[in-house]
Amino acid sequence: MQRNGALYSLVVSTQNGPRKAEAIFAATLELLAEHGYDKLAIEAVAARSGVNKTTLYRWWPSKDALLAAALRDSGLFALDVPDTGSLRGDLLAVSAHILRLLTSEQTSPAVVATLTAGPRRPELGEVARSFFADRMAREEPIFARATARGELRDGVDPVLVMDLLAGAIWFRLLLRGGEAGPEFLEDAVDAVLDGVA
């Protein structure tokens, strides 16, 4: 059936959302970085992305659902799960990705705004949990391959490994205000894999 008007062209979708999903996600993350979580609004995202707000509400019933989708599905945060042939190589590649998220001009403001608002906003905490659960699901093959190669003993908790590694990077950058270059990433990965005793 033929339909007219720009609105119809905006709601024609792919499997992952409306056609202009990446523009919507970009607008969401830009507004989050500029104004913080409290002032992030669906109407502002609609205006900046050029998408009717009814389209946004059709796909995401709240700003929390929209923010969760932006963090999970935006190309800015895409994670190509590495397969370097070793657990150490894979963890170094993931660590470099985490470092880029925390230092890139495109992603750092949104990440920092989410982390700093999270403890005061239970609904934002749920967004963060959704993001990290999705990220951990994508990282699981790293640990499955390492176990199959005999690099990792059975029973090692992948979540604990990633928490230790990512936590070291976040703490160094965001709380200590220090540098986290390649040497630091290697030291952090080795400390997690080998222990410090």
UniProtKB/TrEMBL annotation:
User: Which InterPro entries does the UniProt entry name for this protein?
Assistant: Homeodomain-like_sf, HTH-type_TetR-like_transc_reg, HTH_TetR, Tet_transcr_reg_TetR-rel_C_sf, TetR_C
Keyword Ribosomal protein in record: no
Q: What SUPFAM superfamilies does this protein map onto? A: Homeodomain-like (SSF46689), Tetracyclin repressor-like, C-terminal domain (SSF48498)
Q: Whereabouts does the entry annotate DNA binding, in residue ranges?
A: 41-60
What keywords appear on the UniProt entry?
DNA-binding, Transcription, Transcription regulation
Q: Which residues form the HTH tetR-type domain?
A: 18-78
Q: Which domain of life is it from?
A: Bacteria
What protein does this entry describe? HTH tetR-type domain-containing protein
Natural source organism: Amycolatopsis oliviviridis
